[in-house]
Each structure stands twice: as C-alpha cells, then as structure tokens.
Amino acid sequence: MKNFLLSIALILFFVSENNAHVAHYSKYNLLEYELFRNNKLIGYHKYIFNREKDNLKIDNEVSFKITKLGVDLYKYYAKGVETYTNGVFTGFNSTTNQNKKEKYVNIVLDANKNLIIDGSSFKGKVDSDYIIGTWWNHEIVQKKAQISAVSGRIIEQKVKFIGKEKVKIGNKTYNTLKFNFSSSDPSLSKDKKLNTDIWYEEGTYLWVKAAFDKTGYWEYRLKKVE
Q1: Does 150 have pLDDT greater than 60?
Q2: What is the torsional sign of CA 184, 187, 192, 198?
C-alpha cells in the first residue's frame, strides 16, 4: 500500500512538471549506454543532443550482435532522430535492420496536436498523450501508451513504482527510482508483451539502467554522460 501511494505521488509530481520534462536534460549533450545479454557486453545505445534556439534534435543509435563460437547469430542496428520545439515533441523517424529484416517509423505532430504515425507495424493517428519509447525521457512514466521506436506499434502500458534503489555501475553508485512497465493488454503474445524495469536517478531524472527478460536477461547500463 505504501509503494502504491508513493507511486501515485511520484507520477502526479511528474505530471505537475509536464512542461519541464525536456528541460531536465538541458545540461546533457551525450548519453551512452552499454547493452548486456546474460551479463555479456554485446553492443551500445547512444543519444546525442543538438540544440538550436528553441529546437532540440536527439540523434540516437543502437547496435548489437549475438555471437556463438565466433558466428554471428543475430545482428541489430538502428538509427533515429527525435525532435522537440519549446519542449514539445514534434517528430521522430528511424530505420532499423533487425537481423536483415528492415523496419521503420516516421511520426509527425499535426496542427491539431495529434501524432501521425507511418510505421512498418502501424499506420494511423493517435493523440499526443502517447510517447515515443526511447526511455531517456522520464515523462514516459505518466503516459498511457508508448510508440515503438522501431516499427510504430502502439504499446498500451501500466507503470508501477517498485521503490528506491541504489544502483552501482562501475565505480559510481546512483540513488534511483525503479519503475516497472508492463503491457495493459493481457491477450498479447509473450514476445509482444512489455515487461521492463527502468531506473531513473532521483532528483536528476537521468535514465541509469533498464532490464528485461526475453530469450536471455538483457540490461542497459549507463556508460557515459557529457
């Protein structure tokens, strides 16, 4: 009960600072993460922040591969661009090569503040209460759904505050707030269901770590901040 009430309080706090979400990251130029599978380093994910007056552009890149006995079993590479004007999300586009399968998504904000999505898994219009699922922006904890940054698929979500945790990465320990994100739709197949733990640094809202279990135990760990 205590965690439930604290979860509600935290989400309401995030809502009350809605216009400040992107501003929380104004001092960052680079966020870089290492990607591990079963505790083995397999790749990276990086975000580069570019600012010009009231405009913010975030270039992101993900690359990893799974090998066994020197043979590449699975390779993944994606590049995307996320844009904001005066702190408001205005668009996103990405292309992904998922083990030789091409996927994409293009999103724009129209004049009525709806998001127009053209993706390999979904094409249509949704309201702006949805958010692109790139994790770096803690505003995602208050949203009813996220949009796949790979294919545009709509992922309705439930967010639960797990508790405060100390997370040690390398020689640094972070005081974090841990959340679990799960799919709202119980009828989804196991490979489509969302079940991801996310850790944000308390006070700065910096994304520190992510973890999920899907054909192995995967972790994103913060490597570099500039």
Answers
A1: yes
A2: positive
